[in-house]
Amino acid sequence: MTAPTEIRTDGGRRPLAEPSRPPRRGMAVVVAAVVLAVLIGGHRLVPGDVGTLLDTALPWFGLVIPLLAVIAVVRRAWWPGLAAVLVPSLVWTAMFGGPFARGIVHGSSGGTYDLRAVSQNMYAANPDPRATVGKLLTTKADVLSLVELRYGSYPEALNATYPHHVVKGTVGIWSRLPIRDAEPVDLGLGWTRALRATISAPTGDITVYVAHLGSARPLDTGERDATMDRLAKAVQSDRSERVLLLGDLNTATTDRELGRLVPPLREAQEAAGSGMGFTWPSTFPLTRPDHILYDGMKAVNARTVETPGSDHHAVEADFRL
């Protein structure tokens, strides 16, 4: 088939110009950037266990953004490729940029505090719990919670340092301040993995929960969800003015299930920490199942603490009462 032609005034013929087409360079980057922005911003719309898995992995989606930018540069897709990459960048920054900016502006110190809380998953297969405890003692915590305890595995050094302590099942609390009214919280697991107690601070009582929720595995969060339901009901019905919840909730900060507790509680890492505060696995932390949640106090600093022996980092937060 011959190309279209037009008749010239001199009787000759010349080909008609090809119709203009919109530039295609960078369109793949544009599509990928839009999909990424929608996934980051609308992750809560994905239902079920797939949605929970997406929630957990969400912070790591930020690594895709510079990759898309590099592809746009290589393909010389200045417009619209690089412009499109700005969209997921802004969405990710709006969701996760605060703790990083706080660390740059304020550094790691939050100033004076009245109460320091630390929580650690001791790891049932811990080869040297004494080393773990030794590191925890260096934090100079006022309130220390331990979960996944092996019976009798906590060294006497804890009891010597903390005159007040309570153990219920596989969770325990050690405190420099008096503890009273300690009782187990039933998570429906058949053995005690949560407790509630009152700590008598000079400025008033603090209700402390220590919890180790059921396991959550990829596409299998039923046990975790059931225990979260029981814990959330206990916390939501609590009328205490000050509440502190410590432990391994097997729930990432970005997991929608944490919304059962936040609010009414707040996450210390988000309020006063720097960065994401990932705690597990200890060799290369990818997520944050360990939390310090609070209400009725002001968090002024939060961080993670590398501890030997455990497969979790500890979490630490300072509060003004």
UniProtKB/TrEMBL annotation:
Domain of life: Bacteria
Compositionally biased residues, Basic and acidic residues: 7-16
Keyword hit for Glycoprotein: no
Database matches in InterPro entries: Endo/exonu/phosph_ase_sf (IPR036691), Endo/exonuclease/phosphatase (IPR005135)
Any Pfam family: Exo_endo_phos
Molecular functions (GO terms): endonuclease activity
Presence of keyword Transmembrane: yes
Transmembrane segments: 26-45, 57-74, 81-101
The entry's keywords: Endonuclease, Hydrolase, Membrane, Nuclease, Transmembrane, Transmembrane helix
Coiled-coil annotated spans: none
Region annotation Disordered: where it falls in the sequence: 1-22
The protein's name in its UniProt record: Endonuclease/exonuclease/phosphatase family protein
Organism: Actinomadura barringtoniae
Span of domain Endonuclease/exonuclease/phosphatase: 119-312
